[in-house]
Design brief:
The chain is elongated. By secondary structure, it is α/β, with parallel strands linked by helices. The protein folds into two domains: 117 residues, Response regulator (Rossmann fold, 3-Layer(aba) Sandwich); 118 residues, LytTr DNA-binding domain (OB fold (Dihydrolipoamide Acetyltransferase, E2P)). The chain is built from seven helices and 15 strands.
Length: 244
């Protein structure tokens, strides 16, 4: 099956380059090219779009703001001459962030990454009975058992996966994508930078979560969810925690 692509850029030369690269790849199909986000919206109403190659500094509405308006955005690969939006782009769960001028080798790397993202279970859920995930790290696919994960830490556009009796795994992925992927009955987001295993949590206060000797902060916007989860799930380590 081909991935149906939309190119959104107000620079004709940039559009021609991305379209040329996309047409060189068998499993990509360019559905349309648009010069602004409003045109893109009209195309998306009429066509199935799997991927948008999206410039950021567009007329009328910038690319990152456009993505925020979409309830169910397709996969996004940003194409821009500006580096300062990278953190925001990956916070929006972008597949990749290509800096202009884009060469074909870098474009291929983005499409390779897209292939791995597309292969992940839809909506971040795991197949019934699955107890592990694969992550690309250190030039290989690494199997990670859910039962081994203690917590996940976000550092810019990477995450560190901390595991029992194993070294941390450094993965290029947003924490939002990881949050969507992990089962909600086993893991909880406690901070913009942290997800913790409920089973590995030994205690928490109004301000932090403890996993043995490790203390992780609870973000203000996540505090209610953390405490609510503990009240609703009797018998889990969190429900036996203390609140100060």
């Amino acid at each position: 099956m081909k991935w149906r692509c939309l190119i959104v850029d107000d620079e004709p030369l940039a559009v021609r380059i991305v379209r040329k690269y996309a047409e060189m790849i068998d499993h990509l199909e360019v559905v349309a090219c648009c010069s602004d986000a409003l045109q893109a919206m009209e195309v998306m109403k009429a066509e199935r779009i799997d991927l948008i190659f999206l410039d950021i500094e567009l007329p009328k509405i910038i690319g990152t703001s456009f993505v925020r308006t979409l309830q169910k955005p397709p996969k996004i690969i940003f194409t821009t001459a500006h580096t300062e939006y990278a953190a925001e782009a990956f916070d929006l769960n972008a597949v990749d962030y290509l800096i202009k001028p884009i060469n074909f080798e870098r474009f291929l790397k983005a499409i390779d990454k897209l292939g791995h993202v597309m292969a992940l279970p839809e909506h971040g859920s795991l197949p019934i009975g699955a107890d592990f995930l694969y992550f690309r790290a250190e030039r290989k696919m690494v199997k990670v058992l859910l039962a081994d994960i203690q917590y996940v830490e976000s550092i810019k556009d990477y995450i560190n996966i901390f595991r029992c009796d194993l070294p941390p795994l450094h993965v290029k992925q947003s924490i939002r994508a990881m949050e969507m992927l992990l089962p909600g009955n086993l893991f909880v987001r406690i901070h913009r930078s942290y997800i913790v295993s409920i089973q590995k949590t030994t205690a928490f206060t109004c301000h932090d979560v403890e996993i043995g000797p490790i203390e992780l902060p609870i973000g203000r916007q996540y505090a209610a969810a953390v405490h609510s989860f503990a009240r609703k799930k009797p018998g889990t380590p969190m429900s036996r925690a203390y609140i100060q």
